[in-house]
Amino acid sequence: SAVISQKPSRDICQRGTSLTIQCQVDSQVTMMFWYRQQPGQSLTLIATANQGSEATYESGFVIDKFPISRPNLTFSTLTVSNMSPEDSSIYLCSVRVLQGSLGNTGELFFGEGSRLTVL
Amino acid sequence: AQSVTQLDSHVSVSEGTPVLLRCNYSSSYSPSLFWYVQHPNKGLQLLLKYTSAATLVKGINGFEAEFKKSETSFHLTKPSAHMSDAAEYFCVVSPSGGSNYKLTFGKGTLLTVNP
Lengths: 119, 115
What we know:
The complex is a heterodimer. Chain A has no helices and 11 strands. By secondary structure, chain A is mostly beta strands. Chain A has one domain (17-111): Immunoglobulins (Immunoglobulin-like). In chain A, the strands form 2 sheets. In chain A, strands 2, 4, 5, 6, 9, 10 and 11 form a 7-stranded mixed beta sheet that branches. Chain A starts with a strand and ends with a strand. In chain A, 35% of the residues are buried. Chain B is mainly beta. Chain B is 0% helix and 56% strand. In chain B, the strands form 3 sheets. In chain B, strands 2, 5, 6, 10, 11 and 12 form a 6-stranded mixed beta sheet that branches. Chain B has a 4-stranded antiparallel beta sheet with strand order 3-9-8-7, with no helix packed on it. Chain B is globular, with a radius of gyration of 14 Å. The interface between A and B is medium-sized, with 21 and 28 residues.
C-alpha cells in the first residue's frame, strides 16, 4: 500500500490567480497521476506525472493550464494556472502499485484531495 | 477501448437491509475491476478488486462483488447495510494485460442508508 499526503486540503482562490498542490508519497512509486473531480461528478484523469520528464496529459488538458512537476519518485506538484470558477473541483493525487508479472493489475491509492473553490 | 456503466446514480436502503450496487463493463482486454468508496470530504478508498483470480471477491467492511464474464458485470453487494456505508461508490475498470495502464471510472452511485 501507499500513504499519500496532499496539501492544501482546501483553498479558496480569486479568479486569475494560480495555486500549486503538493503530493507526497511515503514510498517510491513509479506511476503517479493527477485527477480532477468536478462537483457531483466522477474522476477525470488530468495527466500522468513522469519522474524527470514532462508529464503526459490527457485530451482536454494542457501543460500551460496544469503544469506538473515530479522531481523524484515520492513527490509531485500540480499547478492550476489562471484560475476561473470552472476550475472549482477536487484535485486528487494517486499512485499505482504494480503487482506480479502482469505489472498493471495493481490498484490506485489516493490522497484525500485538495478542494479548490475559485471565486 | 474500455468503459464502465454504473446502472444507478442513487440507491437508498434501510439500515440492516441488503445493498446491491450494479456495474457493467466493456473492455478489449481481460479486465481488472475495482470498487472504490468515497465518504464525504474524503479521498477514495479501495473496497475490493478482481484481477483474474477467484470470481467472487471479498473486500473490506463486509462488501463483496462477483465477476460475471458472460454478463460483463461486477455488482457490489453487502448483506446488511450500516449507517456508516453511506457514501459514493465508484466501479473502475482497467486492462490487466498489455501496456495500457489507464483506469476508467464509472460515474458513481450514491448510497443512502436510512435509519
